[in-house]
């Protein structure tokens, strides 16, 4: 960072910013005190990975420039939105809103909502469908959002993420916007452990995706499992690709052809022997 200038928006990502913010605002107040600002800037500069930027002089200059630009009085409070606009680009700033206000617990939860609006399995939703999608999402998270604000969110999403300007968004774009938690499957290394460990890991994996606790994966549970499996080898996933892989998985694993994947069926597909 140039010592004569403040932080340049675009170097930081929303997830990293939120991680630092939550260290200072653990209670979720939405602001920090000005006395915490020096430590906040220090942590953000450390996170940038640029060693020459993390000097007492640079941290102090960045803090002073921020205070002057935002007219923060001594002893005042600094809102998250003020600091986010300093460190984040426009799209990362917008992503921050959803990482803070509407976190999703799993791919299954995301796919439950997605399937409701991509009813024709086209792999896309329109701007109008997106607005309905967001309305239900905020209701699900028990967040009160006005229609005016909902329209604003929808318009901003389309502006930032509809790259080809065709008036619709795909699965991968929404997954990025809505900040799914880290892929559950990343914690498992099935090829590098014993048979007993693989069985133990399988039990954890199946329990995670079997949200309904029926002993079988169906509907969005299959979708969530497929999405996370695909993401391990293909970071960018389209809705049509997910549907194709889902069909392949069902064709190979759904032995009794009931449209579900029983626990024993999935174990068989993965080459495991488990107790029924």
Secondary-structure map with pairings?
Elements (H helix, E strand, L loop, with lengths): L13 H11 L6 E3 L3 H11 L8 H14 L7 E3 H8 L2 H12 L5 H11 L6 E3 H14 L6 H15 L6 E3 H7 L17 H15 L6 E2 L2 H14 L5 H15 L7 E2 H7 L7
Antiparallel strand pairs: 1-2, 3-4, 5-6
Helix pairs in contact: 1-2, 1-5, 2-3, 6-7, 6-11, 7-8, 11-12
Q: How large, in whole angstroms, is the Cα Rg?
A: 22 Å
Strand order of the largest sheet: 1-2
Q: How many β-strand stretches?
A: 6
Q: Note the gap between the termini.
A: 60 Å
What form results from the Cα inertia axes?
globular
Helix content: 55-70%
Q: Number of helical segments?
A: 13
Strand count, sense and barrel status of the largest sheet are: 2 strands, antiparallel
Low-confidence stretches: 1-5
What is the H/E order? HEHHEHHHEHHEHHEHHEH
Give the overall pLDDT as a whole number. Answer: 81
**β-sheet strand percentage:** 5-15%
The secondary structure category is mainly alpha
How would you portray this structure in words?
With 276 residues, the chain is mainly α. 56% of the residues lie in helices and 6% in strands. It has 13 helices and six strands. It has a two-stranded antiparallel ribbon with strand order 1-2. A two-stranded antiparallel sheet has the order 3-4. The model is unreliable at 1-5 (pLDDT under 50).
What key attributes describe this structure?
mainly alpha, 276 residues, 6% strand, single chain
Brief account:
The protein has 276 residues and is mainly alpha-helical. It contains 13 helices and six strands. The protein has helices at 14-24, 37-47, 56-69, 80-87, 90-101, 107-117, 127-140, 147-161, 171-177, 195-209, 220-233, 239-253, 263-269, and strands spanning 31-33, 77-79, 124-126, 168-170, 216-217, 261-262.
